Amino acid sequence: MNEIQKKKYTPPSRAIGVRVSASEYSRLVQLAEIAGLKIGKYAISCALEKKITAPVPAVNRALYSELARCGSNLNQIARKLNSESKLSGSDLIINLNDLNRSLADVRRQLLGAK
């Protein structure tokens, strides 16, 4: 067999009943929704001290992509400035203005502005 073996999935075979107050139930529902889990899975994760991570919101994924594009543009500008071929002043200003506009859009989105 391979050195790295995958764990075989074992379906749950035991049930545990737990009583909670109305306010505790509401809080569990809220926390489970934030974590993107059903209440049972959330409770198991908490009880077994598994790390619970909330799913990344779609808006954050989109902003991450936009920031990655800005970083790529900045790297291209730096590469041209450091290379033997000189970047003209007007090209540099155009590229930096484009980058500045993109970063301003990201900042507005992070603040909730359109």
Write up what this structure looks like.
This protein has 4 helices and no strands. It is mainly alpha-helical and 114 residues long. Helix 3 packs antiparallel against helix 4. The termini are far apart. The mean pLDDT is 79.
Strand count, sense and barrel status of the largest sheet are:
none
Query: What ranges have pLDDT less than 50 throughout 5 or more consecutive residues?
Result: none
Q: How many separate domains make up the residues?
A: 2
Q: State which percent range the strand residues make up.
A: under 5%
Tally of extended strands?
A: 0
Number of helical stretches of at least 4 residues: 4
**What value does the Rg take, in angstroms?**
25 Å
Distance between the termini: 55 Å
Q: Provide the helix percentage.
A: 55-70%
The helix/strand class is mainly alpha
Net shape: elongated
Order of helices and strands: HHHH
What does the average pLDDT come to?
79
What order do the helices and strands come in, and which of them pair?
Layout: H1 22-35, H2 39-47, H3 58-82, H4 89-110
Structure, briefly:
The protein is an all-alpha fold.
Keywords:
single chain, mainly alpha, 2 domains, 0% strand
